[in-house]
Design a protein that fits this description.
Distance between the termini: 37 Å
Order of helices and strands: EEEEEEEEEEEEEEEEEE
Structural class: mainly beta
Number of strands: 18
Radius of gyration: 24 Å
Oligomer: single chain
Low-confidence stretches: none
Length: about 270
C-alpha cells in the first residue's frame, strides 16, 4: 500500500528469499525501488547473489535444480527518505546485464512470497534533527589550468535490432584535447564501450571497449590504442586484448592477448 507518512532508512536493507531455480548456475539480482503514484520507478539500492555462493565464497557449490532454498541478500548501504504517498517495490531478476555477466543458461526463478521478507534499516525522525547544521558549500582542490583545443563531449544510448533480437548499450566519452598549462603537456583521450546481448541467449553477451590516449609536448608525441573484447561459452570466459603504441607515426609496440578463463561456477 502507499506510505501514509515519510519513511527514512539509513543502512543496508536485507531481502530474505525462499526460492527455487531450474538450473545449477544462477544469479539473483534484487532492487529496492520507490514508485510514485504515476508509476515512475526509481532504484534506491540493489544487491546481487551468485546462488552457487549461497553458503560460502571459498567453496561454491551448484544449486540442485528445483530444490527449495533460502538466501539472504544484503543490499548496498543507503540513506534515503521515501515520500508519503509513494510505494516500495522489491524487483527480482536472474540477470542484471551489463552489471553482472549472465549465467550460461536462461534461468526460471520461483519465489515463495509467503516465506520471503524485506528488512529495512528504518530511522525515526528525532527532535534534534531540527538543530542539524546545513551542509556547507562543496570543497575541492583547485582545478588544473587547461587550454582546450577540442571540447569534452560524451553520450550514452541504446540500440535495438528488432530482427536479430539484439540490444546494444553504447558509451562514447571524448575527454577532449587540452594542454595542462603549467606542464605544457597536451593530452587527448577518447573511449568507446559497447555492451551487447541477444534475447534469451546469455552466451551471446559481449563487451567491446576501445581507448585511444595521446600525450605530447612540442615535437614529442605518443599515442596508445587499446581494444578489449570479452565473450563466454558455457565453460570459459574468452578475453582478447590488443595494444598498439606509437611515437609520432612510428609503431613501437604491438601486442595481442587471447585468454581463456574457467567460469568456475559463474
Amino acid at each position: 500500500e502507499p506510505l501514509d507518512s515519510r519513511l527514512e532508512i539509513v543502512g543496508a536493507p536485507i531481502v530474505s528469499l525462499e526460492l527455487a531455480v531450474d538450473r545449477p548456475l544462477a544469479f539473483v539480482a534484487v532492487r529496492l525501488n520507490e514508485v510514485t503514484p504515476d508509476g515512475t520507478s526509481a532504484r534506491v539500492s540493489y544487491g546481487l547473489i551468485n546462488l552457487t555462493h549461497r553458503h560460502s565464497h571459498e567453496h561454491p557449490k551448484p544449486v540442485v535444480p528445483g530444490a527449495r532454498i533460502r538466501v539472504s541478500v544484503q543490499l548496498n548501504d543507503v540513506a534515503h527518505a521515501f515520500a508519503a504517498g509513494n510505494r516500495l517495490r522489491v524487483a527480482l531478476s536472474t540477470s542484471y546485464w551489463p552489471l553482472v555477466w549472465p549465467s550460461p543458461e536462461p534461468v526460471t526463478l520461483s519465489i515463495f512470497s509467503g516465506k520471503s521478507t524485506l528488512i529495512l534499516p528504518s530511522r525515526k525522525p528525532r527532535a534534534e534533527d531540527a538543530k542539524l547544521r546545513p551542509f556547507g558549500d562543496p570543497e575541492s582542490a583547485e582545478p588544473l589550468a587547461k587550454t582546450y583545443h577540442r571540447p569534452a563531449v560524451g553520450r550514452r544510448w541504446v540500440e535495438r535490432d528488432i530482427g536479430a533480437g539484439t540490444t546494444t548499450y553504447r558509451i562514447e566519452e571524448d575527454m577532449g584535447n587540452f594542454t595542462i598549462e603549467h606542464l605544457g603537456l597536451e593530452t587527448d583521450f577518447v573511449q568507446s564501450e559497447a555492451y551487447r546481448i541477444k534475447d534469451d541467449d546469455p552466451l551471446s553477451a559481449e563487451i567491446d571497449i576501445r581507448y585511444t590516449i595521446s600525450i605530447g609536448r612540442g615535437d614529442w608525441r605518443t599515442r596508445s590504442e587499446t581494444r578489449t573484447v570479452m565473450r563466454a561459452d558455457k565453460t570459459h570466459f574468452m578475453v582478447e586484448g590488443f595494444l598498439d603504441a606509437f611515437e609520432g607515426d612510428k609503431k613501437l609496440v604491438s601486442r595481442r592477448w587471447n585468454e581463456h578463463i574457467p567460469r568456475d561456477l559463474v
